[in-house]
Amino acid sequence: MSRAVVFDVGNVLIRWDARLIFESLLPDAAAVDAFLAEIDFDAWNLEQDRGRTWDEGVAALSAEHPARAELIAAFRDRWQESVPGEIAGSVEILEDLRAAGVPLYAITNFSAEKWLESVARFPFLASAFRDVVVSARERLVKPDPAIFELCLRRNGLGAADCVFVDDSARNVASAAALGFDALLFTGPEALRAALVARGLLA
């Protein structure tokens, strides 16, 4: 079969930075750092990616940190402000691969609710891929090997036939251990060069 490319979404195709919201609500970078550490933001946010609803997540964390309830709710309500736009060079690569007939897939850690909002905002997320494995829908998150295996199984793919692109070194390592040709995303220019070297782009 022809080689497929499997993309991560956040910070590969669209920019995502949770700090953008809190920087507008807190006095300085140190205050943002302290707040994120206080609420263990990464662990909390991952549970939405694992399938917990935003209302459940906000309620649970606000109960633990009632003085921070307004900030916590603001992240849910203003989430799209954490996504300032697409990564133009990466989207151009995506379109070039599609034009070349390369099979395209995605595996993304994303909440179900925010995924729907993002697809509405960025239509290429709905049109470019033969399948998108959204973590919240599957109750699996990267770097768990099971989410990669699900993508392969569901689409009749072999890991050795897939180039996987992600900005997380942990996710890249997990995919590589399963036999994917796994690339750490550092920017569109380097990604394009890697795909040209593999004969997927001219």
CATH C-level class of the largest domain: Alpha Beta
Inertia-based shape: globular
CATH homologous superfamily of the largest domain? Answer: HAD superfamily/HAD-like
Structural class: alpha/beta
Element order: H for helix, E for strand: EHHHHHHEHHEHHEHEH
Quickly count the domains. Answer: 2
- Spatial sequence of strands, sheet with the most strands: 3-2-1-4-5
Mean pLDDT: 97
Q: What is the third-level CATH name, the topology of the largest domain? A: Rossmann fold
Give a quick account of the main beta sheet: strands, pairing sense, barrel closure. 5 strands, parallel
Amino-to-carboxy terminus distance: 19 Å
Helical content stands at 40-55%
CA radius of gyration: 18 Å
Number of strands: 5
Residue runs with pLDDT of under 50 for 5 or more positions: none
Strand content: 5-15%
At CATH level 2, the architecture of the largest domain is: 3-Layer(aba) Sandwich
Number of helices: 12
